Amino acid sequence: MTVVGVWMGGVLLLAELLNRFASVDSEITRKIVHIGTGNVILLAWWLQIPAWVGITAAVLASAIALLSYRLPILPGVNSVGRLSFGTLFYAISIGVLVAWFWPLQQPQYAALGILVMTYGDGLAAIIGQKFGKHPYKLWGIQKSWEGSLTMALVSYVVSCLILLAVQGAIWPTWLVPAVIAISATSLEAFSKYGIDNLTVPIGGAAVAFFLNQFLMSIYL
Fold first, then answer.
1. Which of 147, 117, 105, 148 is nearest to 130 (CA)?
2. Pairwise CA distance, residues 80 & 84, whole Å
3. Mind giving me the DSSP string for the chain?
4. Who has greater pLDDT, 162 or 61?
5. Whose CA is closest to 179, among 203, 197, 144, 195?
6. Tally of structural domains, the chain
7. How far apart are CA 49 and CA 53, in angstroms?
8. Model confidence pLDDT, tens digit, residues 151-173
9. What is the pLDDT of residues 66-113, one digit of tens each?
10. Neighbours of 213 (CB within 10 A)
């Protein structure tokens, strides 16, 4: 619990310091928090932290996120010029995935879902904002092809690395991530109010779990 708390507290502190004293844009500080806090799932997996610790941390993070929408607790994270509940949804998704996969002793799927969102969406937003020259609109939400391609590629690589570490270089390891990448990119395209912070991790983990279980039954 201490390690998780210190890690997340350090990420939030860094983001706020950059926003207040280095004049870093709020969108950038959000991505620092987005990517930094997402990696806590790897710590939880590596250290074999009990499910109740992860769930408790997610509940506390959700409560802080809710409070921050009413009080200026995290201005560098929530002041992005649009209504977004992304921080809240992110915390909820971590809690849901830990509650789902820890009891099954399959933490890799929770890590996969969170890290697809952490790196896929995080880098897609950065690339899209900096290099997005080919925009498109979907359900009234503007995206860029550069950002969406980044989301797909990063999702595929992240998924491959996790499955490769768990089950080795077998054909489901390379096929399942392709479906995850398509699913995650499609879900990320609809990001109104930050709902993608909930749908992408849970959707990606669900696709990975059920499809991989099915293909492994054929493989074995």
1. 147
2. 8
3. -HHHHHHHHHHHHHHHHHHHHS---HHHHHHHHHHHHHTHHHHHHHTT--HHHHHHHHHHHHHHHHHHTTSTT-HHHH-SSS---HHHHHHHHHHHHHHHHTTTT-HHHHHHHHHIIIIIIHHHHHHHHHH--SEEEETTEEEEHHHHHHHHHHHHHHHHHHHHHHH-S-HHHHHHHHHHHHHHHHHHH--GGGTHHHHHHHHHHHHHHHHHHHHHHHH-
4. 162
5. 203
6. 1
7. 7
8. 999 999 999 999 999 999 999 99
9. 777 776 665 555 554 445 677 788 889 999 999 999 999 999 999 999
10. 13
Query: What is the identity of the amino acid at 64?
Result: I
Query: Does the global pTM surpass 0.85?
Result: no
Give me the domain span that covers residue 89.
2-219
User: Tokens 């890799």 map to which residue?
Assistant: 108
Which residue type occupies 55?
A: I
